[in-house]
Amino acid sequence: PNLDPIYQHVGHFVGIRPATNFRDYQISLTAERNWITCASIRSTGLTASLGIGRHVVDLLRSLLPLPKPMEKIRTSPLPEVSQLVDQYNNSEDGCVLVHGFLYKVTHPLTQFGFQARSGIARSTKGWGKR
After folding, report:
1. 14, 91, 95, 121: which is deepest, by most CB within 10 A?
2. Does the pTM of the predicted model rise above 0.70?
3. Could you tell me how far CA 48 lies from the centroid of its own chain?
């Protein structure tokens, strides 16, 4: 079968104590079947879960093609809070302009904060910075 790393898995079991007649964990890869077996993980598996997960990811990487590098996402800094406060308090519709897009301020705590800072926003530029 083909391996779909995002949507396909056989199953997972929580609360069932998988065990075999072997003492150690049973983690193996059957590449020709696109199959990874994780069994006989007992209570010590909780402590070892990060290492087990890392090992399973390494096994998956040996089966899957390397992912394409992600494009770097360009971000733009938000305007100064004092500018947003001024815009909000000077607009009739409770909107602010951010990078050419008009946003309606709808959250009650943001509205309260913007109203409370009205008139003092200019004098508190950089407020809270250390």
Report:
1. 121
2. no
3. 23
Residue type, 124: T
Encoded amino acid at 6, one letter:
I
SS3 state of residue 104? strand
How many angstroms separate the CA atoms of 36 and 30, rounded? 6
Q: Are strands 35-39 and 26-30 parallel, antiparallel or unpaired?
A: antiparallel
Residue 43 DSSP class: T
pLDDT in tens, 49-99: 889 889 998 998 888 877 777 777 777 788 888 899 999 999 989 999 988
Closest to 84 (Cα-Cα) out of 66, 63, 98, 70: 98
81 contact partners, CB below 8 Å, separation of at least 6: 117, 121
Handedness of CA 7, 10, 14, 18 (dihedral sign): negative
Sign of CA dihedral 90, 91, 92, 93: negative
Helix (H) or strand (E) holding 95: strand 95-98
